Amino acid sequence: MTASMIKTLDLKNFTVLPDAHYEFSPGLNVFVAENGMGKSHLLKILYALTTFGLGSGQDSKNILQAELEKHLKENFRAEEVFRLVRRVQGSKRCTVECSFAEPTASVEFSISSRVGLSLKKIPSSFTSGSVFFPTRELMSLCPWFVPAYELYHLEFERSWRDTCQLLQAPGRKGPRSSAMTSILKVLQTALGGEVILNGDSGRFYMKSNSSAWTGTIEMPMVAEGLRKLAMLYRLIQTGTFEDRRVLFWDEPEANLNPKYIRQLARCIWALATNGIQVFVASHSMILLREFMISQVKAKSQEVRWFSLAGPNAGLECVSDLSQLTRFTAMKSEDEQNIEILEMEF
């Protein structure tokens, strides 16, 4: 386990998330729930806690408080930080505590409408950062997005700016690990080509060798689902995961054909079993079952499956997908299968 990896999270009255103690795997962590139960919120709070102190030295408590508040507001797009406190009668305060593999990076804070954000446990060191992939692809936003975000008040989440910045970073010298090289080959086959960055314009292109289109294609002309695969390809290509050992991915399956969902699931599994801590929120049974297949084949215990069902239902955490008792996606799919089988054609 590297120093960047997240061990635990304790929440009380934070947005719609259940008050609970979350214990994470150093490998793959999967969140399932209905819409509005807080899957994305969980990814965002963890992302903020792994990035707010990047580049910080021996900063004062006030500076760190201001920096954390800024990251929370910009990642959640909250008008004020106290808007992250759950609206329940008699409660005007939330608490968050997060521990890392490196104990000195652990942080604890509270938020209230009266005081705002207050750091209770101040980290003396910080993680090397993390990567956040939202549900939307970001390749087509380069190169204009980062400069515009810095100059103007854009109503986009900070993670979009951060990831665009990583996508445009220059590639690193030196050999890649065999695991990363294998993942690149899988992605290149799925993409039907390779990702190219024009150093002068900052624009991305796909150098395609597929039967459908041969030659260099502007990235916005590539199918949106494939652009999501291209994001992962690019960050492995640049060596981003050599430093940033934590990946958050919100609904990787969005806009992807089931064929590519299975391939992507295998790439995510390869990352999670080669030193990258991965957090995924998903509704896709194909993606989740592919993770389950990989877990069973590997006889791995390094997977945590979490089910969220609102603040009053508590947290369900198991080591096997089949053990989840609250799983709406599977229940809905089973109900539909039964209905189809009972139909007369």
Task: Kindly describe this structure.
Helix content is 34%, strand content 22%. It is of the alpha/beta class. The strands form three sheets. The chain has a six-stranded mixed sheet, with helices on both faces. Strands 2-1-4-5-6 form a five-stranded antiparallel sheet, covered by helices on one side. A three-stranded antiparallel sheet has the order 8-9-10. Strand 8 and strand 9 form a beta hairpin. The longest helix has 16 residues, at 61-76. The protein is globular. The N and C termini lie far apart (55 Å).
Q: Could you give the topology of this structure?
A:
Elements: E1 6-12, E2 20-23, E3 28-33, H1 39-49, H2 61-76, E4 93-100, E5 107-112, E6 116-121, E7 131-133, H3 145-151, H4 158-167, H5 178-191, E8 193-197, E9 204-209, E10 214-218, H6 224-238, E11 246-250, H7 258-272, E12 277-281, H8 285-298, E13 303-308, E14 315-318, H9 328-341
Parallel strand pairs: 3-12, 3-13, 7-11, 11-12
Antiparallel strand pairs: 1-2, 1-4, 4-5, 5-6, 8-9, 9-10, 13-14
Helix pairs in contact: 1-2, 5-6, 5-7, 7-8
Tags for this entry?
345 residues, alpha/beta, 6-stranded mixed sheet, 14 strands
Segments where pLDDT lies below 50 for 5+ residues?
none
**Overall pLDDT, averaged?**
91
* Number of distinct helices: 9
Number of strands: 14
Question: Into which percent range does the helicity of residues fall?
Answer: 25-40%
How far apart lie the N and C ends?
55 Å
Fraction of residues in β-strands? 15-25%
Summarize the biggest pleated sheet. 6 strands, mixed
Helix/strand/pairing class, anyone?
alpha/beta
Global Rg: 21 Å
Give the overall shape, derived from the CA principal axes: globular
User: Largest beta sheet: what is the strand line-up?
Assistant: 7-11-12-3-13-14
SSE sequence, one letter per element: EEEHHEEEEHHHEEEHEHEHEEH
